[in-house]
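> call design_seq(struct)
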């Protein structure tokens, strides 16, 4: 007899951590910052018994570069932070986008600018959706509005990152990260994904794989950036999703 999934009362941050585990994420790298600390706290407890690894890095800069290295091996991996910490990660995120490395980055954003405060804010929208670092890259950005969506969109973000070989971001804020709502912890829906034959998996009697974001030969960078542009256009065409409420007669 099939039973309905159990409803849990959890924080939005905890829902993200649960979805990461249910998506097959094996590695987490991060550095504490309010208001997202429930994510590393949960994963530090629940990842190791499942064969995963939790590493508290010495900084956000170290965290994103650890994530870069892990994602290059083809495993599912993630980091999380909040606004000032995400700013410190921008160079590494740009390298990951340029090297076409899939991974999940979570921003439970808080008020700013500068150190700002720990209250909710939506001020990181342009940084997230327009590529906050150098080089005109783009990320897949999903913005949940409920605790259930924190879970569901985290599952989706891992799949889309692998589908497009591109970093993906969950863009939440301090309010949804800290509030509790009912959550149905259902199995993350599988997606047909391309093989990770690009991954660095050691010597296996094949031609070596090379992952890089540095292109110095004549025309090489232009060709690579055109490839990335076409990918971003495909992402915009196929993956934009939204929920609307009483906007039919809106005047813009």
């Amino acid at each position: 007899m099939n039973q309905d999934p159990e409803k849990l009362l959890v924080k939005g941050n905890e829902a993200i951590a649960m979805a990461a585990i249910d998506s097959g994420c094996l590695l987490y790298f991060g550095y504490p910052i309010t208001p997202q600390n429930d994510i590393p706290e949960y994963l530090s407890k629940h990842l190791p018994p499942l064969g995963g690894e939790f590493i508290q890095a010495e900084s956000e800069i170290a965290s994103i570069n650890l994530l870069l290295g892990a994602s290059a091996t083809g495993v599912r991996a993630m980091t999380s932070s909040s606004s000032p910490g995400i700013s410190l990660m921008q160079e590494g995120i740009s390298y990951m986008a340029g090297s076409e490395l899939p991974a999940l980055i979570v921003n439970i954003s808080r008020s700013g600018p500068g150190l700002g405060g720990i209250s909710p804010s939506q001020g990181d929208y342009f940084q997230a959706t327009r590529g906050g670092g150098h080089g005109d890259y783009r990320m897949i950005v999903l913005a949940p509005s409920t605790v259930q969506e924190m879970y569901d969109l985290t599952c989706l973000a891992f799949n889309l990152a692998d589908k497009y070989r591109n970093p993906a971001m969950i863009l939440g804020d301090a309010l949804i990260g800290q509030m509790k709502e009912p959550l149905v912890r259902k199995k993350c829906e599988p997606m047909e994904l391309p093989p990770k034959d690009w991954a660095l998996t050691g010597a296996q009697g094949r031609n070596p794989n090379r992952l890089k974001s540095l292109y110095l030969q004549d025309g090489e960078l232009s060709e690579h950036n055109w490839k990335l542009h076409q990918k971003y256009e495909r992402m915009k065409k196929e993956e934009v999703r939204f929920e609307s409420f009483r906007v039919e007669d809106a005047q813009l």
